[in-house]
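pls design
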């Protein structure tokens, strides 16, 4: 069962997170995963891992799935070598880490960004349109297509221990 936490309630996360050795943060592109992850890692003196840092250079531009761009072996090796507390952030995170079930010392946070702007993605509306067939996922550019495909297939927002809702104001 997941808990939904809004922006103003985020401070209560620290008590919950202090009990876990591994903190996994996932969400759509530009949802705030890296910003939140770095702050949490700094607060706890944890090692910070961002899957974007493990993207294999000079990849073939026709690769469609985000997780195929990641050097999973290198990332897994470095995560396993880290003995202390760790914070891992990324899109398609369960696919990348092959974490269908998290152990007792791990916690999974899904950051849900709700945008009020018309020029940025609005996750719930886009997901509804994809489910109803109003738009075709092949018309969404990468990395958003990977995000949406993954969210529809894996439903990480439903499997998360914590859902952190972040509202993005008009700029």
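designed seq:
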């Amino acid at each position: 069962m997941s808990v939904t936490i809004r922006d103003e309630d985020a401070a209560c996360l620290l008590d919950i997170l202090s009990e876990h050795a591994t903190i996994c943060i996932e969400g759509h592109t530009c949802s705030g995963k890296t910003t939140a992850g770095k702050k949490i890692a700094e607060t706890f003196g944890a090692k910070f891992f961002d899957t974007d840092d493990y993207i294999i250079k000079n990849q073939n531009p026709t690769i469609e799935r985000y997780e195929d761009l990641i050097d999973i072996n290198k990332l897994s090796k470095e995560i396993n070598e880290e003995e202390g507390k760790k914070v891992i952030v990324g899109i398609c995170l369960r696919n990348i880490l092959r974490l269908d079930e998290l152990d007792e010392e791990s916690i999974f946070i899904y950051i849900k960004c709700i945008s009020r702007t018309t020029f940025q993605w609005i996750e719930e509306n886009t997901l509804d349109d994809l489910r109803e067939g109003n738009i075709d996922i092949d018309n969404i550019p990468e990395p958003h297509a990977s995000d949406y495909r993954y969210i529809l297939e894996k439903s990480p927002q439903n499997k998360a221990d914590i859902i952190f809702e972040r509202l993005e104001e008009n700029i």
